[in-house]
Design a protein that fits this description.
This protein is of the alpha+beta class. It is about 30% helix and about 15% strand. Strand 1 and strand 2 form a beta hairpin.
Length: about 200
């Protein structure tokens, strides 16, 4: 091995190629398909869900996946009360939020909610944009309160939203039973048997 170059066993002789490069597999081969699948998986996956409307204004939110580095940074810096698992999960969900949009009925278009920094997500910037009252200018709404407020303090609706997003992002397995339709809307199920 030379002091200024790669080890001699890594030098490719003229006329040869190194395996694992994009040109060493036929376009219709399994390896080429796996490479396409890996590229597609690495692409940022995003999903969009409706939010409860505010008045007559329809809202929706788009989430994307989080990279390992992002999750590790969150875990390392988080000061989350482990006795409140929903709050911890909402913190992660807020980090996965890409945008919140409102439907402009006059223009018949969706518009991303933005401030001077860019698109707002489920943090204090959203509450400032929407003009939420605060006890003082330095007060910051915690993410849990932002989510709660956007869901009208309906804990069941918020939990359902979290579960649907977590299933869509692959964080938990989707288990659609006989008592739920595939759209996620509750349907009637058979009366449970009585005990004794």
């Amino acid at each position: 091995m030379s002091a200024n170059g790669p080890p001699s066993d890594l030098i490719t002789p003229p006329g040869f190629h190194i395996g694992g490069t994009s040109k060493d597999a036929a376009p219709d081969s399994v390896i080429a398909q796996l490479r396409r699948d890996v590229r597609q998986r690495r692409a940022s996956k995003s999903i969009t869900f409706d939010l409860p409307p505010i008045g007559s204004t329809r809202l929706r939110v788009t989430y994307g996946t989080l990279g390992t580095d992002e999750v590790e940074r969150y875990v390392a810096s988080a000061q989350v009360d482990t006795t409140r698992p929903l709050s911890a999960n909402l913190e992660v969900l807020a980090r996965a939020c890409r945008s919140i949009e409102a439907y402009d009925a006059a223009d018949e278009k969706w518009a991303v909610l933005e401030d001077d920094v860019g698109p707002v997500t489920f943090d204090d910037r959203l509450t400032r944009l929407l003009g939420w009252e605060r006890p003082g200018e330095d007060f910051r709404y915690p993410i849990r309160e932002v989510y709660s407020g956007m869901f009208g303090d309906d804990g069941f609706a918020l939990m359902t939203h979290f579960t649907r997003v977590a299933q869509a992002l692959g964080l938990v397995e989707a288990d659609v039973g006989a008592d739920l339709s595939t759209s996620g809307s509750p349907t009637r199920s058979a009366q449970p048997p009585r005990s004794g």
